[in-house]
Specification:
It is built from 18 helices and two strands. The protein has 472 residues and is mainly alpha-helical. The longest helix is centred in the N-terminal third of the chain and has 34 residues. The relative contact order is 0.20.
């Protein structure tokens, strides 16, 4: 079945996602356990960085997404909001950079899967973490398996993120329980004092980690991209945002605290820190099952994290294809399974190429850091548009009635949320370029991330103008 819209004839998608699915999708998409390890490098001061990011980015972005989705609850989400507010070109830029950011970033998630799974097998297999062929075979096997599930329809694909969302909850609870038992028997590995809660902002190496923290809380905008596949999106998306935001905040704070008390400062691995914590607790308590179960949970959580973004991301070129700024094939859905099959296949091919390119001639750690920072730069560009669009849509009173009561009563509240969100997003883009202390060749690092981002954006703009010229 098809329906007519302002963009022409749009294929009918399957509304397979209910409120529970949305909550699990948000948790799976936002809570990346590898993110805990990256910020836990600063010990107890990491908790303050997380709280700062919650109030300056997570809460403003949640309010913004809920309001804009209520006004325009259509497939494409932020692309639709931006295009309506600022025109086709800016809608395209927002969608292209968002898609690019996740395409660049997903290989870093893929890298975590083979490494965390090694801890299931035991210490004798950890040497495979830097083995090129092991990482290639596991990562590409998972990539194409998840892609095939998505092609077979949302009804099947959603179980990957659902299992991942549940595994994330269990992982953090398990980490919390084992951490408490560890403290009771051995005390905190990192001694606590009140002054340790204050980050040393005079150390410039701290600043880029705040960008990583803000990046950790991205993901609430993903569900509205799938609005055409959600049951009652105007009602369920805001409810899911509230429930999952509270859950995400608690999960992150509990997780990072347990990492700090179980692993010495300076020894937390930036890729597999959570699995490392389980392994250390397991060794200290003499219970091998803790490390194995922890590794299984982290692997499943990461798989759900990866699957949720694979699912949502494919809808971005799909909606751009509907507006004819990509080949029309991208706007096709499978006649039986209702999935954007061409978009999914193209996405998998690009990810395969990018993953193989990123690990060629580099260590796994170097590839991870370069891709992560490049994705942060690209990912936050659409948020600049979204926070600006919040003000525009409120001023123009577009679409349906909003759902945030304070926004209905006060224009100042809208401006306050938009300014805080826009400002912290722009700040995060700028400071993310500063190399962290884990980067050895800092000049080359800056050239790679900035040059790579510029080239990728330039490629997208070239496609846009060529396609627009052809359409006219």
């Amino acid at each position: 079945m098809q329906k007519e819209t302002s963009s022409g004839t749009v294929p009918q998608l399957h509304r397979a996602l209910n409120l529970k699915d949305l909550i699990l999708l948000n948790i799976a998409a936002i809570v990346g356990l590898s993110s805990l390890a990256q910020v836990a490098q600063f010990g107890f001061a990491s908790l303050s960085l997380y709280l700062l990011a919650i109030f300056t980015f997570l809460i403003p972005s949640g309010l913004m997404v809920a309001e804009l989705n209520a006004r325009m609850p259509g497939e494409g989400g932020f692309y639709l909001w931006t295009r309506t507010a600022f025109g086709n070109f800016h809608g395209y830029v927002a969608a292209w950079t968002y898609w690019l950011s996740t395409i660049v970033w997903l290989p870093t998630v893929m890298i975590l899967l083979p490494i965390s799974s090694l801890y299931i097998l035991g210490d004798d297999y950890l040497s495979l973490a830097e083995n090129l062929w092991y990482n290639i075979s596991v990562c590409l096997g998972i990539l194409w398996s998840v892609t095939i599930l998505n092609i077979l329809g949302m009804e099947r694909a959603k179980w990957v993120q659902n299992i991942g969302g549940v595994a994330t909850w269990i992982s953090i609870i398990f980490l919390l329980v084992t951490g408490v038992v560890f403290i009771a028997n051995h005390g905190s590995i990192q001694p606590f004092s009140a002054d340790k809660l204050i980050p040393d902002f005079t150390d410039f190496s701290v600043l880029p980690y705040f960008a990583i923290v803000a990046f950790c809380f991205g993901g609430l905008e993903l569900a509205p991209v799938l609005a055409g596949e959600i049951q009652n999106p105007k009602r369920n998306i805001p409810r899911a945002i509230i429930i999952s935001s509270i859950s995400v905040g608690l999960l992150y704070m509990a997780g990072i605290l347990m990492l700090i008390v179980t692993v010495p400062e300076g020894e937390i691995g930036i890729i597999a820190g959570v699995v490392q914590s389980f392994n250390r607790v397991s060794s200290a308590m003499g219970i091998p099952g803790i490390g194995i179960l922890g590794a299984i949970l982290v692997t499943l959580s990461t798989l759900g994290f990866f699957g949720s973004w694979m699912t949502g991301l494919a809808r971005v070129p799909f909606v751009i294809g509907l507006d004819h700024y990509l080949p029309d094939a991208f706007a096709k859905v499978h006649p039986k399974w209702g999935s954007p099959v061409i978009s999914l296949l193209m996405q998998a091919v690009v990810l395969t190429f990018l993953f193989l390119s990123s690990i060629a001639g580099s260590t796994i750690k170097e590839a991870f850091l370069t891709l992560l920072v490049m994705s942060i730069i690209l990912y936050f560009i659409p948020f600049l548009y979204m926070f600006a669009a919040l003000v525009w849509h409120k001023k123009q009173n577009t679409g349906n009635e909003g759902v945030i009561p304070v926004f209905q009563k006060s224009k100042a509240a809208v401006w306050t949320v938009a300014i805080i969100g826009f400002g912290i997003t722009l700040f995060s883009i700028i400071i993310s370029i500063v190399p962290t202390r884990d980067v050895e060749n800092k000049e080359l690092f800056i050239v790679k991330v900035v040059g790579g981002a510029v080239l990728l954006i330039g490629a997208g703009l070239t496609v846009y103008f060529l396609k627009r010229k052809k359409n006219h």
